[in-house]
């Protein structure tokens, strides 16, 4: 005997008779597998006058096509920690006002091709999933996207084809993944980036074209990787670099070329690297010539 039974409690906060702004959906499911998967779409139709929605204490394993419909005013959707495993094509249809989409701490392994296309969101977080693969054009045609958080996943590479017409992306976080290298031109379709966090990966070397085209970059975090070599010319396009964070790597030295690309920047951190004695002297000299640049080693 299987009980098919749903209790859904919709708690409305910040309610005023004229304007309903925020809604939290708490759900408990005492039902078989199939039913709670469709729960989300079944219960949120026709609530069209609010701007923020957070689901918690529930399970939404599959986000189905047209899952969140008839919410033309929804600005923020938070589906964090709901054990989401897959995103079906069309699951973000009809969210024309959405600006913030949070999907952290779920179980997503795959981000399907083109899934977020045409959403006019500014911020997307996919932090803390199991993402190994991102389909071509997943983040294409998103000219409003400014911040993308892919940290704490299982990505092994960065593919320029994830992006096309994503012309305002400012911050990209791929910290705590499994990157071993940055391919040449990895960022060629996101030249607007200012802040890139690649810390806590397994990157072994930086090749001269890996940051090609990133002329607006100001903050680059490469802490806690396995970097042994930085090729000459690696930072040739980064004239405005302010902070280059490299602590916790395996560098024995950095070349004059790399140092000179930092001249226009204000600070750099080369800390906790096994910098060789001979190199130390060179760095001492550089510090005297360029007192504005802060180097720790
Ligand atoms: C949702 O969007 C799809 C495709 O974008 C459209 O065909 C459908 O009519 C829309 N549904 C509603 C309820 O607006
Ligand atoms: C996004 O918009 C473009 C241009 O309007 C359209 O050609 C494309 O099919 C849309 N993509 C999706 C996935 O809806
Ligand atoms: C980029 O996206 C915008 C909005 O979706 C669209 O109007 C524009 O045509 C797209 N540009 C290209 C080159 O696809
Ligand atoms: C990017 O989009 C434009 C316009 O839609 C298209 O011509 C171009 O081939 C696309 N580039 C990639 C790498 O997908
Ligand atoms: C990137 O993500 C990590 C892990 O989630 C976080 O600790 C870090 O602060 C983020 N970096 C930036 C620049 O926000």
Automatic annotation (TrEMBL):
* A Pfam family matched in the record: LRR_8
Which SUPFAM superfamilies has this protein been placed in? L domain-like
Annotated keywords: Leucine-rich repeat, Repeat, Signal
**Annotated SMART domains:** LRR_TYP
Which GO cellular component terms, listed alphabetically, does the Swiss-Prot or TrEMBL entry include? plasma membrane
- Segment forming the signal sequence: 1-18
Answer whether the UniProt record assigns the keyword Phosphoprotein to this protein.
Answer: no
Check the record and name the InterPro entries matching this protein: Leu-rich_rpt, Leu-rich_rpt_typical-subtyp, LRR_5, LRR_dom_sf, LRR_TM_domain-containing
Q: Which domain of life is it from?
A: Eukaryota
The name this protein goes by in its record: Leucine rich repeat
């Amino acid at each position: 005997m299987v009980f098919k039974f749903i209790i859904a409690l919709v708690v409305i906060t910040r309610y005023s008779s004229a304007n309903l702004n925020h809604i939290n959906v708490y759900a408990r499911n005492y039902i078989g597998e199939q039913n709670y998967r469709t729960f989300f779409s079944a219960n949120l139709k026709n609530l069209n006058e609010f701007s923020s929605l957070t689901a918690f204490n529930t399970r939404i394993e599959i986000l189905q096509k047209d899952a969140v419909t008839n919410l033309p005013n929804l600005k923020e959707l938070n589906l964090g920690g709901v054990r989401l495993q897959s995103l079906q094509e069309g699951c973000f249809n009809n969210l024309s006002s959405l600006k913030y989409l949070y999907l952290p701490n779920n179980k997503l392994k795959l981000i399907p091709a083109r899934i977020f296309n045409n959403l006019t969101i500014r911020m997307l977080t996919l932090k803390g999933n199991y993402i190994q693969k991102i389909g071509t054009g997943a983040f294409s045609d998103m000219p409003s996207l400014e911040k993308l958080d892919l940290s704490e996943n299982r990505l092994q590479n960065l593919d320029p084809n994830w992006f096309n017409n994503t012309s305002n992306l400012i911050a990209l976080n791929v910290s705590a993944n499994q990157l071993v290298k940055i391919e040449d031109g990895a960022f060629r379709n996101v030249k607007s980036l200012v802040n890139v966090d690649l810390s806590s990966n397994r990157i072994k070397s930086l090749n001269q074209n890996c940051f090609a085209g990133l002329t607006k970059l100001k903050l680059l975090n490469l802490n806690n990787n396995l970097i042994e070599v930085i090729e000459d010319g690696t930072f040739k396009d980064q004239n405005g670099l302010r902070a280059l964070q490299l602590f916790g790597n395996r560098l024995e030295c950095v070349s004059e070329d790399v140092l000179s690309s930092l001249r226009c920047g204000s600070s750099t951190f080369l800390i906790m690297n096994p910098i060789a004695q001979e190199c130390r002297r060179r760095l001492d000299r550089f510090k005297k010539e360029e007192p504005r640049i802060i180097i720790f080693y």
